Structure formats: structure tokens, C-alpha cells
Amino acid sequence: QVQVVESGGGLVQAGDSLRLSCAASGLTFARLGWFRQAPGKDRDFVAAINWNGGSTYYADSVKGRFAISRDIGKITVYLQMNSLKPEDTAVYYCAAARGYKGYALAGGYDYWGQGTQVTVSS
Q1: What is the pLDDT of residues 14-31, one digit of tens each?
Q2: Which candidate, 120, 23, 24, places its Cα nearest to that of 65?
């Protein structure tokens, strides 16, 4: 059974940091990614990491503030979010891809978690 489970969301103030975790199991995957969706908006790419090799990719809006990493032993991916802004408020989703389709495209991922809410107050 495939499981993709996020954790770590919460309510923080602007400028604070938060770390999200994503545990994936039940499949062999090539890449894990993070997307976010604010109310009334599309689901946008945030960051991704290739499981083998560890290459990372970021949306321009989070470069220099967010960092994606992986723990191979725990089969877990982390999203360290620093210098958070109110515009980072969204539901954050973790997704797993079996192959190497477009890393920034939601359609490039095969399995999704249930999402975790991140709220940044000003």
C-alpha cells in the first residue's frame, strides 16, 4: 500500500521558520516534491528532490529561503522553511513520482499526501 504522509504544519509569525516532513512508503520512487495551494488559487510547485543523487529544484519564490533534503534511511523528505512570509500561507502537499517527468508539474507526480496547513501571520 502506497502512503505519502506529511507533517509539521502550523501557525507561525512572519520571519519564523518551520520544517515539514514527508514519509513515503510502499513504492519505489524517483523523486519527491512539495507543492502548495492557497485558497482560490492553483496548486503551485515549491521544491523537489531526486531520490538518487539528491538533485534539488526550487520555485523562484522560495529560493534562498526554503531547503529540501532527504533522509534515505528514514525514507523521509524535509522542507525547511525560513524567513516565512504571509504569502507562504497555504496547504502544503508532498508528492511522489515514479519517474522523471517535469519536476514542477503536478501531473509529473503519481501519489499525493493529504496536505498540511501552514499559516503565516503578519
Answers
A1: 999 999 999 999 888 899
A2: 120
